[in-house]
């Protein structure tokens, strides 16, 4: 009887701990937890000044009353960011088709501002047909970079030098409400999810 | 002279702590070297026969469950990611693996019925197999702090460990058999 009670107590305590540690079985990975936390808490994002591909300065989050969609990239990326760039172009087209072009700003922000100067940003924009109207390519200052990545929960690590090198990071689209709250994080090819999140913040 | 086991335990934990940065830089050494060593230190500090008579732990079930839940917690990818960004979680790892995995496992295993031991061994091997498949084939990055290629290597690490443990646990069945056949002749020189 004692052994049964002891085992039962451990079983209950262990299950409760596991339930808590996974946010109710909803997030097993740090990335899952990041997205869930943003959805629940919608934290305010402090303002960062970016330099765009046209050489002008622009704040992130953008002008008041405008929603923002941000992805993080580096322009010398050989593989996944190029497809992410294609995804972002597609998202820009969808946003315009929905008639929301003047209510949202799209940013592809470089996390490699040392290498990605204005000419690199411009070339990347040209490659993916970003004209700077709805969607622009930009970079933070080197000093702001750690705080910027931390605010968004983006982790960048050096890639495998044996293969492509470069960086690996948790690629995603981050949706910021017109009030400056980070309200949703979705996969770069989840267009429906991104549009839905955008409409939710605008309504 | 054999050093006392608590001294070995201190050395093992010291090694894991001093070399934590290189060990944790690669998920294979983090998960398949550092974590098992920390758990082993808990086994080392548990004297033989601890809690042997406790009614609360009949069959070792309660303590084995403690070890099970602690292991499950550290199997979560987000726990591993958290260790790399939070010193509190790092400290929790150094405490809970010896005292939440190693020690209760040693206490529980000593009292576990052979059938329960067999089930646990089978579970460990099959769980490692599932992890191997998952880590080698997952289409997404499981840990933000580690590369996809590291993830694949960890998957193969799980696979080799599963194969190694299978051999390690099955081989004695044959060796014990031959030893028994030799024993009646009482010739220690040939043993």
Task: Offer a quick outline of the entry.
The complex is a heterodimer of chains A (203) and B (191). Chain A has 203 residues and is of the alpha+beta class. Chain A has helices spanning 2-21, 30-41, 80-97, 118-127, 145-152, 191-202; strands spanning 48-52, 57-60, 67-73, 104-110, 135-139, 156-158, 167-169, 173-176, 182-186.
User: What's the CATH class of the largest domain in chain A, please?
Assistant: Alpha Beta
Coarse morphology of chain A: globular
Uncertain stretches of 5 or more adjacent residues of chain A: none
Helices of chain B, by number, come to 8
Indicate the proportion of strand residues of chain A. 15-25%
Span from first to last CA of chain B? 24 Å
Average pLDDT, all residues of chain A: 91
How many discrete domains of chain B? 2
Give keywords.
heterodimer, A: alpha+beta, Glutaredoxin, two-stranded antiparallel sheet, 39% helix, B: 191 residues, mainly alpha, 2 domains, 76% helix, globular
Give a verbal description of the structure:
The complex is a heterodimer of chains A (203) and B (191). Chain A is α+β, with helices and mostly antiparallel strands. Chain A has two domains: 2-32; 44-202, Glutaredoxin. Helices cover 39% and strands 21% of the residues of chain A. Chain A is built from six helices and nine strands, in the order H-H-E-E-E-H-E-H-E-H-E-E-E-E-H. Chain A has helices spanning 2-21, 30-41, 80-97, 118-127, 145-152, 191-202; strands at 48-52, 57-60, 67-73, 104-110, 135-139, 156-158, 167-169, 173-176, 182-186. A seven-stranded mixed β-sheet of chain A has the order 2-1-5-4-3-8-9. A two-stranded antiparallel sheet of chain A has the order 6-7. Chain A is globular and about 75 Å long. The mean pLDDT of chain B is 91. Chain B has two domains: 1-48 and 59-112, no CATH class; 114-185. Chain B is 76% helix and 0% strand. Chain B has helices at 5-18, 20-25, 27-44, 61-75, 77-85, 87-111, 114-137, 148-182. Chain B has eight helices and no strands. The longest helix of chain B has 35 residues, at 148-182. Classes of the chains: A alpha+beta (203), B mainly alpha (191). Chain A binds chain B through residues 2-3, 5-7, 9-11, 13-15, 17-18, 21-22, 27-33, 155, 157, 159-160, 163, 168, 170, and chain B through 55-59, 61-62, 65-66, 68-69, 72-73, 76-79, 81-82, 140-150.
């Amino acid at each position: 009887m004692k052994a049964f009670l002891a085992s039962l107590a451990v079983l209950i305590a262990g299950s409760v701990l596991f339930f808590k540690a996974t946010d109710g079985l909803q997030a097993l990975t740090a990335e899952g937890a990041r997205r869930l936390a943003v959805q629940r808490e919608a934290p305010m994002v402090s303002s960062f000044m970016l330099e765009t591909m046209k050489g002008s300065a622009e704040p992130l989050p953008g002008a008041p009353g405008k929603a923002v969609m941000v992805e993080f990239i580096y322009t010398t990326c050989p593989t996944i960011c190029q497809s992410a760039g294609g995804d972002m172009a597609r998202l820009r087209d969808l946003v315009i088709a929905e008639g929301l072009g003047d209510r949202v700003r799209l940013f592809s922000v470089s996390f490699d501002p040392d290498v990605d100067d204005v000419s690199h940003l411009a070339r990347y924009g040209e490659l993916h047909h970003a004209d700077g109207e709805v969607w622009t390519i930009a970079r933070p200052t080197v000093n702001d970079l750690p705080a910027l990545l931390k605010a968004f929960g983006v982790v960048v690590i050096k890639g495998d030098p044996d293969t492509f090198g470069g960086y690996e990071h948790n690629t995603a689209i981050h949706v910021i409400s017109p009030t400056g709250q980070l309200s949703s994080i979705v996969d770069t090819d989840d267009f429906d999810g991104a549009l839905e999140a955008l409409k939710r913040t605008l309504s | 002279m054999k050093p006392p086991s608590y001294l070995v335990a201190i050395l093992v934990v010291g090694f894991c702590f001093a070399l934590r940065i290189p060990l944790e830089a690669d998920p294979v050494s983090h998960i398949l070297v550092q974590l098992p060593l920390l758990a082993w230190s808990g086994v080392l500090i548990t004297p033989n026969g601890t809690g042997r008579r406790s009614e609360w732990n009949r069959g070792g079930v309660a303590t084995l469950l403690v070890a099970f839940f602690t292991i499950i917690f550290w199997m979560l990818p987000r726990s591993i990611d958290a260790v790399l960004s939070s010193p509190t979680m790092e400290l929790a790892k150094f405490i809970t693996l010896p005292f939440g995995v190693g020690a209760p496992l040693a206490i529980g295993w000593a009292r576990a019925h052979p059938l329960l031991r067999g089930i646990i061994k089978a579970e460990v091997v099959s769980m490692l197999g599932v992890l191997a498949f998952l880590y080698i084939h997952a289409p997404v990055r499981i840990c933000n702090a580690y590369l996809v290629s590291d993830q694949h290597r960890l998957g193969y690490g799980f696979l080799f460990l599963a194969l190694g443990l299978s051999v390690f646990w099955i081989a004695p069945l044959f060796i014990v058999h031959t030893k028994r056949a030799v024993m009646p002749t009482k010739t220690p020189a040939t043993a």
